[in-house]
Amino acid sequence: MYIQQLIDKGYPVKEFPKDSIIYEPGMQPRFVYFIKKGEVRMVTVNDAGKEFIQGVFKTGQYFGEPALLINKPYLAYTIVSKNSELIPVGKTDFLNLLKDDADFSMNLIKVLSNRLFYKSMMLEELAGEKAEHRLETIINYLFLEVSSGESLKVTRQDLADMTGLRVETVIRGVKLLADKGLINLNRGKIMKV
Amino acid sequence: MYIQQLIDKGYPVKEFPKDSIIYEPGMQPRFVYFIKKGEVRMVTVNDAGKEFIQGVFKTGQYFGEPALLINKPYLAYTIVSKNSELIPVGKTDFLNLLKDDADFSMNLIKVLSNRLFYKSMMLEELAGEKAEHRLETIINYLFLEVSSGESLKVTRQDLADMTGLRVETVIRGVKLLADKGLINLNRGKIMKV
DNA sequence: CTATTGATATGATGCAGATCATAATTTAAG
DNA sequence: CTTAAATTATGATCTGCATCATATCAATAG
Questions:
Q1: Start and end of every HTH crp-type domain (chains A, B) (predicted)?
Q2: Model confidence at A175: pLDDT above 80
């Protein structure tokens, strides 16, 4: 991965404790952040304080490029979910990285394509499908990075914040899906068969 | 633009009449399409036949890269909105284009970033905001590429298909926004001041 | 000018999911 | 083990938007 290269080049690693805010909506982007270790979430918040999870980023991934590259202020918060070590890379350096390293450039293109895919899928769900369908879709999506016999490590509140629903609706919806045999529950945990 | 270069290189231009379908959900991607002239829309359709407009692409733009690059079947239809002339570029050729032309590569990255931005904005709206707010947001966004004194050239149905609302809700919502002085109507047309 | 089609408009009714309230259960902390 | 905090659970009520039905208006073709 590219993270070791950055460290070798002398980029400093910064510690971000859980729940700290890396940036807020309205701020002008200055860095792309590479995650040496940890986990962050990008969330938008409406006037009523309702959160929506735009994305989750984990060890080895990076975030914050789109706003930086198109020079628009952030529209989301990025918040540390687990104590993290991040490597901020300034705009000029990031652009040089893209220019000099065709592989990285290609990697970014694929990463952006994957994020677009996810967002297109979720837009279709939020625009056209009701609670149960949304839940089935997001659960199957999350299952992709979980092995059989394991359970999803997200709370009902997390599912709510990813689908635009309310906790109570998620709780009831998940139960309905279980009743219909579409998912498996084990002491409340959503299990991949 | 890159289109003339493609023509010079001998890529054939194909005609697509209005309402023809370029590709459907489930199909395996084989081309990226450059629009020499015309307009297409990417739409997802739910089981009940309700359409959601994922994006609109016009003369000079290109579409279809994400699914091609990450090797997943399309999840949307792409339908011709105005008689169009398209240049399909096969996967290998498109990858070579990216490899050999750093400018194009950078252009794609920015294009993808802009699309992500739009989708993030709309996700926040669909997940957390109600009809009036959604409409105000999409109208202001569409205003970006319209000059003052001009009107939006979209129908209420188009607005509905971009916001996940129903036509009747859009009609009522637009009227409410006009009553509140948040937008200007002229014989039903939404005017940019 | 007239007919046809598409777009906008308006009222009435129904329902999915939000909201509010409270409780049971699980997990984490001391 | 015990207590506190977080998560899951369940019922009752409220509400914004969908849905259905029908009408008016605007645009386009002949």
A1: 129-193
A2: yes
pLDDT at A68: 97
- Categorize the per-residue pLDDT at B183 as very low, low, confident or very high, splitting at 50, 70 and 90: very high
**Within-domain flag for A110:** yes
Last residue of a domain, one of A115, A142, A164: A115
Domain that holds residue B81: 2-118
Of A48, A113, A164, the CB nearest to B112: A113
Task: Give the CA distances from residue A16 to residues A3, A71, A79, A173, in Å, rounded to whole numbers and listed in that order.
Answer: 17, 25, 9, 35
Instruction: Please say whether the beta carbons of A151 and A189 come within 8 A.
Output: yes
- The whole-number Å distance from B47's CA to C3's C1' is 36
Instruction: Provide the b/e sequence for B176-192 (b: ≥16 CB within 10 Å).
Output: ebbeeeebeeeeeebbb
pLDDT at position A187 is 85
Residue B34 in any domain: the answer is yes
pLDDT band at B193 (very low <50, low <70, confident <90, very high): confident
